[in-house]
Amino acid sequence: MASSNSQVAVRDRLRIAIQKNGRLSQPARALLGSCGLTWRESPDHLFCHGESAPIDLLLVRDDDIPGLLESGLCDLGIVGRNVLSEYNERASSTCGQVQPSELRGLGFGGCRLSLAIPQAWTWQGAGQLQGKRIATSYPGLLARWLADAGVDAEVVELSGSVEIAPRLGQADAGCDLVSSGATLSANQLKPVEDILYSEAVLAGRSNSLPPVLRDLADTLVRRLDGVLRIRDSKLLLFQASRHEVDAVVRLLPDAEVPTQYPLEDGETLALQALCHGAVTWQRMEELKRAGARGLMVLPVERMLA
Ligand SMILES: Nc1ncnc2c1ncn2[C@@H]1O[C@H](COP(=O)(O)OP(=O)(O)OP(=O)(O)O)[C@@H](O)[C@H]1O
Ligand SMILES: O=P(O)(O)OC[C@H]1O[C@H](OP(=O)(O)OP(=O)(O)O)[C@H](O)[C@@H]1O
Ligand SMILES: [Mg+2]
Q1: pLDDT, tens digit (0-9, with 9 covering 90-100), for 97-116
Q2: pLDDT tens by residue, 169-228
Q3: CA 161, 162, 166 angle in degrees (round to 5)?
Q4: DSSP letter at 44?
Q5: pLDDT band at residue 3 using 50, 70 and 90 as cut-offs
Q6: Looking at ligand 2, which atom is closest to the CA of residue 177?
Q7: What's the CATH architecture for 111-198?
Q8: Is CATH 3.30.70.120 the right assignment for the domain spanning 234-299?
Q9: Which ligand lies nearest the alpha carbon of 110?
């Protein structure tokens, strides 16, 4: 994609690209929404004007996001690590501008890029692939893995339905995304090596934005950090006698240091702790046995560090 740094210089609104239709579309929108962003809705359009902040949304094919970032037409993007890594793997062999990099893992869209062989084969290691044909939509990442393993194999590039290639005789093995493994087993394949662990990531060109856009991007990333940090967090409120507090706090290794207030009797403390792990009924009962009283578990809506 051609360079367009001049367009970056004149823009004063941040642009963030997300997938238009697909697995990452809704979770990406929801995540940005929980950062306080709203847009003028236009379901059939590819550009949504930001209302709550000068941050506009671009709705595109996920494969196009790294290129939009590299060209400067877009400032941030939400895309699978698999797509970003493949783009950078290919770009590194051609050289060019500042490549987009991963700024944050976002905790959804989890899957693996795995090498899969016919179920009838017994896996004996990478050497078994010497001289074989491997179908994939990720030729850059696969070629890198093969080179690292010292294996000379033919990479057969397909844009989709990779799992059917061995059945059709188009390839001997495949390399594709795996989540439940159902698609592989439906095609009589089995995963033998994981090449990449992927999830949706926030991507951008760090340190290359003009000041106005960088301030907007920094604000958004700070909000995002707050949202990600509390996503599975709960606020625990309880009381405990002074001599039992240590025993209760030992049961909260995933909590931040609790805030403590002495009550009037001088013996009881009121405590509040931000807990980052699951607070199940069983866990509450253990806390109660250790001396916690009046336990309350509250959702955390927002947090700004
Ligand atoms: N089975 C899966 N389970 C979980 N996440 C997946 C799975 N398959 C893909 N993903 C993740 O979701 C991303 C988007 O997948 P999707 O199938 O919607 O992409 P696509 O068909 O390439 O869409 P587009 O039309 O935008 O090009 C993938 O790049 C990957 O990061
Ligand atoms: O391990 P599983 O849970 O079966 O998931 C893996 C499948 O999911 C993705 O395909 P998708 O369903 O998105 O179809 P597409 O590649 O044609 O878009 C991926 O390309 C695999 O084929
Ligand atoms: Mg795609």
Answers
A1: 679 999 999 999 999 999 99
A2: 999 999 999 999 999 999 999 999 999 999 999 999 877 899 999 999 999 999 999 999
A3: 120
A4: T
A5: very low
A6: 19
A7: 3-Layer(aba) Sandwich (3.40)
A8: yes
A9: 1
Whether residue 177 has its Cβ less than 6 Å from ligand 2: yes
Report which bound ligand comes closest to the CA of 79: 1
CB 74 within 8 A of CB 57: no
- Comparing CA positions, the residue from 50, 54, 14, 8 lying closest to residue 29 is 50
Give domain 5-107+200-230's CATH number out of 3.90.1150.10, 3.60.110.10, 3.40.190.10, 3.30.930.10.
3.40.190.10
Amino acid at 188: Q
Residue scoring higher pLDDT (263 or 3)? 263
- CA within 13 Å, CB half, 206: 7
CB 292 within 8 A of CB 305: no
Q: How far is the CA of 103 from the CAs of 52, 112, 204, 217, in angstroms?
A: 23, 20, 7, 11
Report CA dihedral (207, 208, 210, 212) to the nearest 10 degrees.
Answer: -50
**Which residue has the least CA distance to atom 19 on ligand 1?**
22
- Nearest-angstrom CA–CA distance, 185 and 107: 26
Q: How far is the CA of 58 from the centre of ligand 2 (A)?
A: 24
What is the DSSP-derived secondary structure letter of residue 263?
Answer: -
What is the crossing angle of helices 139-149 and 81-92, to 10°? 70
Whether 5-107+200-230 shares its CATH topology with 111-198 is answered yes
- pLDDT digits 0-9 by tens, 53-69: 999 999 999 999 999 99
Q: Which atom of ligand 2 is nearest to the CA of 179?
A: 1
Query: Which tokens hold the place of 258?
Result: 């609790």
Give CA–CA dist 95/163, Å, rounded.
31
